[in-house]
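Title: [Solved] Tetratricopeptide repeat protein 3D structure

Original question kept below for reference.
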Amino acid sequence: MSYTALDPANPYKWAAYAESLDSSGDTGGASKAFDRALALGPAIAPVHMRAFNFHLIHEHSGQVLALGHRILELTTAYNDLIFADFIGTPTLDILRIGIPPQSVPAYLAWAQGARPTRELLEIWRWMRERGLTGASSASSLTTTLCRRGEYAAAARLWADWLPAQRRAGYLEGNFLSNPRFAEPFKTPLDWSLDSAGGLESLQKEGLIVAFPGTDNLAYRNVRQLSYVIPGRYIFSAVIEGVGITTNEGPFFHVFDADHPDRFGVATEQVRGTSARRTVEVRFVIPPETRAVVTQLERNVSDRLDNKIAGTLKVYEVSLRKDN
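Solution (posted by the thread starter after getting help):
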């Protein structure tokens, strides 16, 4: 008696029957039995997954892509398994046939941990052309590219994705994005604000850092990574200081992102009270440097009166070629 004799309408029985036929060498019979199982259980993901594995083993690429697409429509439970099983299939075939649109962002997220950069960019371009990209996917992918040292690709992608009102000349003169400190996106190519001490706040006119006068701070809380090409640069910041105490004041530090000891420059420190003004520093980025970090810092003071108080306001910053 066959698996299906006692329960001919049960898709699980038909799937088991198909697997039995396959194990005995009857591939054609197994394929027909799986077709019956899928017809009886059109929305049962585990049955589809058993059929998917059968066609994967027998290298039936068309069925694998079609079944993968249907499973991803039904559930996210098998995402990683299906994405991994698609390895070796042309990326555009996967995107056109194997993955429903709502699953493509998840596929991009998975691919960032498993696939080469060229495939990531191919997925991104496909998503971009169809309006499937957003702040989350753009921030995540640029973060991955930066971690891989693909700074140029990350910066170009970020500049292309940024909404027009946030682009502000990024890569068209200014190598720093978000120069006036709007609410940052979660990418190294925007400002990272480590606000554990609650010192930083974003205002309409820029960044405000309020030092409470309770600690001798070693401050490194505001930073951004920038893709650069070798050459002469000028960093400038429009700032204002209000009652900043101690001999060690805040300053901007620009240094090599991969090897900080290779290259680094700093602006003058801000101390006391000073009206709104521009601080700047000119420098040469060496041929070996591919990206820099711009970081707001304050060093620990060696004086007895060392607990820094006061307020620093940063209205705008830029990192430009010094032609």
